[in-house]
C-alpha cells in the first residue's frame, strides 16, 4: 500500500511520518504541496510542523496549497481515501473543512512537549481499527495551537455520532473542549489527531510510557497501530 506524506513549507515531521509508514509495512510516497498529482497513493498523511510559520492561523495558508484540492476531492469521493492529519495536519484538515471545529492557542499560551495519555474512543475509522474501544495509549504531544474548539452543537454531534476518535486522559494539556485529542468525519476515513503517533513506533525512539504498562526508556510504541490500522483497512 502506498501512503503519501505531504510536505508544506515549515513541515518538520514528514520524515518521521514516512518512517512510521515504512515500519508498519507500507510504502511512503513523498508528496510536495505545490504539485497537483497524488501519484496514485492509497492514503495520505498530513504531518506535523508549522506550515507557513503558522501565519494568520495554524494551517490556514496550507489549506490553499494546490495539492490540498486533490486531497479534499479524494477524501470526499466515493472511494473515501483515508487521510490522517497529525498536529499541524489536524489544523489543516479543520481549515479545509474536512473536519469540523478549529484549533486555537493552548489555554496556557505556551508550547507543550510531553508524553501524553490518550483513550481510543472509536475503532470505526480507517486509522483506529487495530485498537479496542477504551484502550489507553501513550504518544508524544508537542504543540502551541493545540486547543480544539467548536460550538456546542458540533460538540454534541461529535459525541452523539461517536466521532471523537481520541480523548485526553490524566489531565487535559491544552484546554480542548470535552478533552478531545482527535476526531473523525462521518465516514471514518478522515481523522485528525493532535498528539504524534509517528513518534511512538520504534523501540528506543518512542515514549517513556505505554498504555500497556511500564516500558524501558523510550520503548513505547503505542502509535504504531495507527499506521497498521490504515494498511489493514486498505487491504480488506
What does this structure look like?
- The chain has one domain: Rossmann fold, CATH 3.40.50.880.
- 22% of the residues lie in helices and 26% in strands.
- The chain has helices at residues 14-24, 66-76, 88-95, 152-160, 224-235, and strands at residues 2-7, 27-32, 43-46, 83-86, 102-104, 112-120, 136-143, 147-149, 164-168, 180-184, 190-193, 209-210, 213-214.
- The strands form 3 sheets. Strands 2-1-3-4-11-10-9-6-7 form a 9-stranded mixed sheet, sandwiched between helices. A two-stranded antiparallel ribbon has the order 5-8.
- It is globular.
Radius of gyration: 16 Å
Mean pLDDT, rounded to whole units?
97
**Percent of residues in helices:** 10-25%
Give helix and strand order, one letter per element, not per position: EHEEHEHEEEEHEEEEEH
Pfam families: GATase_5
Subcellular location: Cytoplasm
EC number: 6.3.5.3, 3.5.1.2
GO biological process, one term: 'de novo' IMP biosynthetic process
Q: Can you tag this structure with a few keywords?
A:
two-stranded antiparallel ribbon; alpha/beta; nine-stranded mixed β-sheet; Rossmann fold; 26% strand; 13 strands; globular; 5 helices; 236 residues
Question: Can you give me a brief rundown of this structure?
Answer:
GO terms for molecular function: ATP binding; glutaminase activity; phosphoribosylformylglycinamidine synthase activity. The chain has 236 residues and is of the alpha/beta class.
Amino acid at each position: 500500500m502506498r501512503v503519501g506524506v505531504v510536505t508544506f513549507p515549515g513541515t518538520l515531521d514528514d520524515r518521521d511520518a514516512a518512517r512510521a509508514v515504512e515500519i508498519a509495512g507500507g510504502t511512503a510516497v513523498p508528496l510536495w504541496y505545490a504539485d497537483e498529482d497524488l501519484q496514485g497513493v492509497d492514503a495520505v498523511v498530513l504531518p506535523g510542523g508549522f506550515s507557513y510559520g503558522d501565519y494568520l492561523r495554524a494551517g490556514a495558508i496550507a489549506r490553499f496549497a494546490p495539492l490540498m484540492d486533490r486531497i479534499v476531492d479524494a477524501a470526499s469521493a466515493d472511494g473515501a481515501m483515508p487521510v490522517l492529519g497529525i498536529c499541524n495536519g489536524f489544523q489543516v484538515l479543520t481549515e479545509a473543512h474536512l473536519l469540523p471545529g478549529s484549533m486555537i492557542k493552548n489555554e496556557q499560551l505556551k508550547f507543550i512537549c510531553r508524553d501524553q495519555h490518550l483513550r481510543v474512543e472509536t475503532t470505526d475509522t480507517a486509522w483506529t481499527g487495530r485498537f479496542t474501544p477504551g484502550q489507553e495509549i501513550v504518544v508524544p504531544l508537542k504543540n502551541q495551537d493545540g486547543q480544539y474548539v467548536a460550538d456546542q452543537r458540533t460538540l454534541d454531534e461529535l459525541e452523539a455520532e461517536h466521532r471523537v476518535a481520541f480523548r485526553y486522559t490524566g489531565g487535559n494539556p491544552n484546554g480542548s473542549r470535552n478533552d478531545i485529542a482527535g476526531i473523525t468525519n462521518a465516514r471514518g476515513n478522515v481523522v485528525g489527531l493532535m498528539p504524534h503517533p509517528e513518534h511512538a513506533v520504534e523501540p528506543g525512539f518512542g515514549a517513556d510510557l505505554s498504555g500497556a504498562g511500564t516500558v524501558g526508556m523510550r520503548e513505547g510504541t503505542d502509535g504504531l497501530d495507527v499506521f497498521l490500522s490504515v494498511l489493514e483497512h486498505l487491504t480488506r
